[in-house]
Amino acid sequence: MLRGEAMAPDRGVRLVERLACVVVFGGLYGAAMGLYRASNSLPQWEVQLVFSAIKAPLLILGAFAVSLPTFFVLSTLLGLRRDFSRAAHALVTAQAAVAVTLASLAPLTVLLYVSSQDYRTALLFNGAAFAVASVAGQFVLRRNLRPLIARDRRHRLLMRWWAIAYVFVAVQLAWLLRPFIGSAALEVQFLRPEAWDNAYVVVARLVWKALLGW
């Protein structure tokens, strides 16, 4: 399913299959993320598991949906609008690849939780898992866009701009949707009170304080 044929007559069916793939496999990894509280015998772990199972596919699909208009505008500006439909289907296939890759890492996530109760380690591991899945998604995207790139090299530039826009949106959206794991020091919530803060401003402040000490 991840190989995709953009010119297939049942394109609509394939699109639904890939979106369902994101929901199912993304939800599976989200549930694994939410097991951190269970592995530490913390209360309300069932609630955190459900929240995380909802938010993982929401993150993937949300980042895709927010970035897609930018992709459309860039396609138009580069004179590639005629290929937008095929390219968009390739993007959806890439999101499915991200979800499947994450799901394949779910057993390792659970094993980590059983082996270590350190919250920062859990954060770093899950961040690395999303990074690996994103790289896998880019490889799948490149493979599906190869015919378009061979026909017009501007598609390669468009793919690079997509990657930048997608990562930028995904980081901010991940900040908004946190917590995904559930710190032992905080109560279980679907969103943090400061969810609408700017992730990049917060990171910049942390770096500033770390460098200057205030």
From TrEMBL:
Keyword Transmembrane among record annotations: yes
Sequence intervals crossing the membrane: 20-38, 58-80, 92-115, 121-141, 161-181
Highest rank taxon of the organism: Bacteria
Keywords on record: Membrane, Transmembrane, Transmembrane helix
Protein name: Actin-binding WH2 domain-containing protein
Originating organism: Botrimarina mediterranea
Source species taxonomy: Bacteria, Pseudomonadati, Planctomycetota, Planctomycetia, Pirellulales
